[in-house]
Design a protein that fits this description.
Helix content is 42%, strand content 17%. It is α/β, with parallel strands linked by helices.
């Protein structure tokens, strides 16, 4: 396009490196035309290294045909190259690059790089000319010695789409040829390095959307209900709500839309039912809302909420899509506030936005939850507001970025579709929600990643109140499998360092958990205060199905959890069914392990990993938290037995107001018993109103961090490996000094939980 692109000065580059350093990146890719033509390129490389980064270079390969330059780059500390090769045919490559010698020189440069031992990723931009012979290009590059190939859609700025569309194929046309190329890569054991960008996703074009509508009808999506209100007026907003077997909760959500300050003729509501077997459809037909309500039903084929939201979007009439979860009671101003934010940013900045509404988790107490009903929501909404609620889990992040998530380098990480709005045209342009995320979680963050060309904003007044409901654990949507499976899909799709930072524990994790009943760690420890029981037990057949799925994922460690899983009548058969795993673990209460013979029997069955809870070095504190006298002595006896049997033992220190000041004392006690692995776990809420045990609850505070850091330092001295759960999340996110101190104490592999990374 005959652009004039002046060089950026060294001070400008150094300023950008300083920003990246604050965000804790480890590698930097130098890009821009042909960066190796800069006379000061080695000064730039030296500067990159001085800031602690490993440098890569993106090149067209032609300059690298000069072998002495390649050797000099090796000495300078460059670790790898991205090199563009359009085709195995010289005429296509030369056409794309605009030079008749480009192909010959690029191949020489490619061979020099491979011979010198650099890490190399060969980029193959997808264009109409190279599409049909893509598999032959892959084979050609494999013969040259390429081990990593990135096939990608060229990206551009929106104003350049018209130029790009002349050269880039539509996705439906590309799919068959891409499939052949990927099959060839698998045959040659070449690693695919995927890359999609927000701009390139534009090529999920209108033909794809039309095919989606047709496919939807063919698979039997049926319009069961449409109250036909306001049908002659085009709404400004469509509210999309996916649901599955939540009739009562959904009725509360829909009722909260009756009294919205946004006039009813300005919005429609679309409920997409993923095959409910309860009375959802009957509830819908008798609801009689003042707005237009449309209800779609699809068979329960395991698609998940992503598919349901896509169906709603495809059939929507509004310009703005508001995505709600079926368990979110909307504040009366919620819809109006979403609309206001879109209008404000369009008028002030001439820029479209992704508007994030707040989610407030209402008290989990079952009696309080039972009071939620349509009558209160309609006639006394202030009563809903008075229910104690935990603030949005993203609250500290929002404060840090001053309610402007786009100020953050990874704003997509704060995108949850439980209360989120975006213009329909951008959803269609981005290709809707990726339906390959069939499990719960991360599909909304991946969507946010593809919408990054928009402005991400928070409207604190657009509030949604989350209703508590049981978490469903099954072979289909167990949290452990869902997070792990979807995180891997997300990372493989984009291969972005910012993704790796967030999802590293799940990308590489080869371990899983099997929930044998509904109880969680919090429930099992605090039954007294929560008034809960372990809940429904999983059958042996359900557990066997889960085990098969996890072994299919290649997992090596399985851990049985759920209050005290050793009390399950079929636990021994479950353990026997886990023989396909290299390691088998039990996360349980100590009382079941005080008998040495019982421990030996478990070891004989194959259990070689144990996790038990301890609540400090003070017997009284432990007994209070476990709600059982003598439980402290039982825990120590269990520790002695497992140390004696030389089994993999991890002791979970449950931190509370009673014991946080004696963490070092507890670490020292465990060291005396020979414990080598400890987990510091804060199972309590940041907001003491969430639970009902005020005598033990512990809000996060600087005092807690002081004692936690002291215990970590002692553990390092005693050579005890420590992991943390829910302790350092805010400080790691907001206080770089604390993060660097942790780094100094424990080095690069400091282990934190996924919650801490968030």
């Amino acid at each position: 396009m005959d652009k004039k692109c002046p060089h950026r000065g060294i001070p400008d580059i150094e300023q950008e490196l300083q920003k990246l350093r604050k965000e804790v990146y480890s590698e930097v890719i130098l890009v821009g035309g042909e960066v190796l033509l800069r006379e000061d390129i080695f000064d730039i490389i030296k500067l990159v290294k001085a800031y602690g980064f490993k440098p890569w270079i993106e090149s067209n390969g032609r300059v690298l045909a000069y072998e002495p330059l390649v050797e000099q780059l090796k000495r300078s500390g460059i670790i790898g190259f991205y090199i563009d090769i359009y085709s195995h045919e010289a005429k296509i490559h030369n056409f794309a690059t605009g030079s008749k010698d480009a192909f010959r020189e690029a191949l020489i440069g490619l061979k020099n790089v491979i011979a010198t031992g650099f890490d190399l990723i060969v980029k193959v931009p997808l264009i109409i000319e190279n599409l049909k012979a893509l598999d032959k290009t892959v084979e050609f590059l494999g013969d040259l010695g390429a081990k990593k190939i990135q096939i990608f859609y060229p990206e551009s700025l929106p104003e350049e789409y018209a130029v790009l569309e002349r050269y880039v194929p539509k996705i439906p046309d590309a799919v068959p040829h891409l499939s052949k190329a990927l099959a060839k890569m698998a045959e040659l054991e070449i690693l695919l390095v995927p890359r999609f960008t927000p701009f390139s996703m534009k090529f999920y074009n209108s033909s794809w959307v039309k095919r989606g509508r047709k496919t939807g009808k063919k698979e039997g999506h049926e319009l069961l209900f449409d109250n036909r209100k306001n049908i002659n007026k085009k709404p400004a907003m469509s509210v999309i709500i996916p649901t599955f077997n939540r009739s009562k909760i959904l009725e509360n959500t829909l009722t909260s839309l009756f009294n919205q300050t946004l006039p009813t003729e300005q919005f429609e509501v679309i409920v997409v039912d993923d095959g409910s077997t309860d009375d959802t459809s009957e509830m819908i037909t008798r609801l009689n809302p003042p707005f237009r309500l449309r209800y779609f039903l699809q068979d329960d084929l395991g698609y998940g909420p992503g598919r349901a939201r896509n169906i709603g979007t495809l059939y929507a009439n509004g310009e703005i899509m508001l995505y709600l979860d079926s368990d979110v009671i909307c504040d009366p101003k919620n819809l109006e506030e979403h609309m206001r934010s879109h209008a404000f940013y369009k008028k002030k900045y001439n820029h479209d936005a992704v508007v994030i509404g707040k989610r407030l988790d209402m008290h989990t107490n079952t009696e309080i939850q039972a009071t939620l009903n349509p009558e209160i929501i309609l006639n006394d909404f202030d009563q809903i507001k008075r229910i104690p609620s935990r603030v949005d889990m993203r609250e500290d992040f929002f404060k840090w970025c001053e309610d402007r998530p786009s100020n953050f380098h990874a704003p997509w990480h704060m995108i949850y579709t439980n209360n989120l709005s975006v213009r329909r045209k951008h959803m269609l342009g981005a290709g809707l929600i990726d339906e390959s995320f069939v499990f719960w979680s991360i599909e909304d963050q991946e969507l946010g990643y593809r919408l990054q060309w928009l402005r991400f904003v928070l409207n604190p007044q657009a509030k949604g109140y989350h209703q508590h409901h049981p978490v469903v654990y099954s072979s289909k949507d167990g949290m452990d499998k869902a997070l792990k499976y979807n995180a891997r899909i997300f990372y493989k799709k984009f291969v972005d360092p910012s993704l790796y930072e967030v999802y590293k524990p799940w990308i590489h994790q080869k371990k899983c958990t099997i929930q044998v009943n509904d109880a969680t760690i919090n429930d099992s420890v605090f039954f007294k205060y929560l008034g809960k029981k372990p809940g429904k037990e999983r059958s042996l057949e359900e557990v066997k199905q889960q085990l098969e799925l996890f072994t299919g994922e290649g997992d090596k460690l399985v851990t049985f959890v759920g209050g005290n899983p050793l009390l399950h009548p079929d636990i021994k058969e479950m353990i026997k069914s886990a023989k396909g795993f290299r390691h088998i673990g039990i996360d349980t209460e100590a009382e079941s392990l005080t008998n040495l013979k019982d421990c030996i029997d478990l070891v004989k069955l194959g259990v070689d990993r144990f996790t038990i809870n301890l609540s400090g070095a003070n017997p009284g504190h432990h007994d209070i938290l476990m709600n059982k006298k003598g439980s402290f002595d039982a825990a120590l006896k269990a520790i002695q037995n497992l140390i004696l049997l030389n089994q993999g033992l991890k002791v979970r220190l449950l931190i509370s107001r009673l014991n946080f000041a004696s963490l070092e004392e507890t670490v020292a006690l465990l060291h005396q018993f020979g414990v080598k692995r400890i987990e510091l776990n804060l199972p309590l809420s940041q907001d003491p109103n969430k639970y009902m045990f005020d005598e033990t609850s512990l809000p996060l505070s600087g005092t807690l961090y002081y004692y936690a850091l002291g215990s970590l330092k002692l553990a390092k001295k005693l050579k005890i490996k420590v992991t943390t759960v829910n302790i350092f999340s805010e400080f790691l996110a907001l206080n770089m000094n604390v993060f660097l101190r942790m780094y100094d104490l424990f080095g690069k592999p400091y282990a934190v939980s996924r919650n801490d990374l968030r």
